[in-house]
């Protein structure tokens, strides 16, 4: 009679897999993907190193899964911001500010998601999620054009520009070199940085100054 996995066994495996993902996420949030070593993840997860490879074919597969989950949280926050009240410009500004402020509050994870050199599988996920952000912005831009609060333009191109502008603007401030060089950004500087980024994005989008 062939072996049939019991429900209890499936649940145990699912819990172990989730624990590995959670511990990997914690490692990345603390020091980026570069610090998330399999031996450390195994120790934190209280499993043998080989157990990790029973749940994930490779280190890259594990990191890609963690990247997907971490970035989806941020995409969901942007989507929530775009679903609030107000015209398209108000909601876009709110969503961009949400993106920037969350990145500043969690600089290590944000750097890991936005700019840290990563394996090809993780880089593929990065490109996928940049497109996810762009799709959200594009829908809002099209709505704004339709409602005459945003000038007529190529919504697809503009949305891609917004993603690139806000991500690249944050690379320097989020860089580990800032922390390694003991560069401290004051709360006032953080607010000014976010305001500057949002002002640039919205002026480029609407052609008007605030």
From TrEMBL:
DNA-binding region: 37-56
Residue span(s) of domain HTH tetR-type: 14-74
Protein name, per record: TetR/AcrR family transcriptional regulator
Highest taxon of source: Bacteria
Keywords: DNA-binding
